Amino acid sequence: MPTEATALRKLKPIVAMNEALNAAMAADDDVVLFGEDIGAYGGVWALSKGLQKKYGEIRVFDTPLSECAIMGACAGAAMAGLRPVIEIMYVDFMTIAMDPLVNQASKIRLMSGGAFDLPMTIIAPCGAGTCEAAQHSNSLEAWFLNTPGLKVAMPSTVYDMKGLLTAAIRDNNPVMYLWHKALYDLEEEVPEGDWIVPLGEAAVRREGEDITVVAYSLMMHRAMEAAAELDGRVSVEIIDPRTLHPFDLDTVLRSLRKTGRLLVVHESPVRCGVGGDIVRRVCGAGFELLRQAPQVVGGKDSPIPFSKSLEDAVIPQVSDIRAAIEAMVE
Which of 201, 187, 148, 196 is nearest to 169 (CA)? Predict the structure, then answer.
C-alpha cells in the first residue's frame, strides 16, 4: 500500500513503471537500468524517460542490439552485487536471450549453493491486439513458468504495474515482468507515493457465487467485461493472480468453496499453457470443491496473424469468455 493516504491521480502504465524505476534507483545505488535505446532516448516505450539525465550514464545506459548480450550482462551484474533491470523491447525477442536466462541466471543460485543471489528484473511487453503480426505479438509466459528459478509477474492494473515492479526489483531472484502492450493507454486512478504489491498475492477483482474465473493481464479486463454483461443472470467471481510464479492457489481454492466451478482465461495458447497447470494444481489440492470439470479459454494453436479480424479470431474475446461462462453455469 502507499506510504500514506493521499489524493488519487490518473496514471498510465508507462508512467507508473517509470515512477517505480525512479523510486528504486533513488533508494538503492546498486539499481542499474540498461537496454536498447534506454538512455537519452528514454526507451521505445518511454519506460526510462528522464532517468539517464537524473542518474547518469553509468547507471542508465544503452546497449548494442543484442538481447543475448543484454541478458548475459544482466546476469553478470547481478552476480557481481548490482541489482540490474533490463528492458527487452518485445517479449518475442527473448528467444535470442534464452541461453543466459535459462541456462545461467535461473540456475546459478542453486548451482552455487546460495553463494550468489541473482536480483535481476527483466521487463518486456507482450501480447497481441495491436496488429504487429506473429513476431511481435506473442504471450510466452508458459516458457518462463517451465524454467525453475524464475519468477513471473503479469500485472493488469496501473496500480499493480507500479507495485509489482517495485517488488520485482527488490526480490533476490530473476523476475520476468511482462506487461501487455494493449494496456499501454489504460488510465486509472492511483495514489501518490510508493507501494509494493507482493509477488504471489492474488487479487479478487469481482466477487460472485456461481463461477470462479481466473484471468490475468489483458484477459482480466475482458473477463470483467464478460461478467458485467452477465450481471443479473450469472454471479461471476474474478481472480487476478498478478504473479504466475509464485501462484496464489489459496485464493483460488477459497473462491471455489463458494462457486464450485473454475474457468481459466489467458491469451497464450491453450496447448501446454498456464490454464492447464492451474487446473492441475486445483484438482490436486481441491478436487472435492469442483461441481464439474474445469475449463480453459485461451489462444488458438496458431501464430498471431497481422489482420485485425484474424488476430481477434485466435485470441479470446469478451464474447468467447461470456459463452464459456454461460455454457458452464446455464
Answer: 196
Whether residue 2 is predicted with pLDDT greater than 70 in this model: the reply is no
The span from the CA of 160 to the CA of 167, in Å, is 10
Q: What's the gap between Cα 313 and its chain centre? A: 23
SS3 60: strand
pLDDT at 88: 98
Q: 330: pLDDT confidence band, cut at 50, 70 and 90?
A: confident
* Domains annotated on the chain, with CATH: 10-191 (3.40.50.970), 203-329 (3.40.50.920)
| CA separation for the pair 190, 188 (Å, rounded) | 6
Residue 136 is a catalytic residue = yes
Quote the pTM value: 0.96
Residue burial 109-131, b: 16+ Cβ < 10 Å; e: rest? beeeeeebbbbbbbbbbbbbbbe
The active-site residue out of 136, 221, 245, 266 is 136
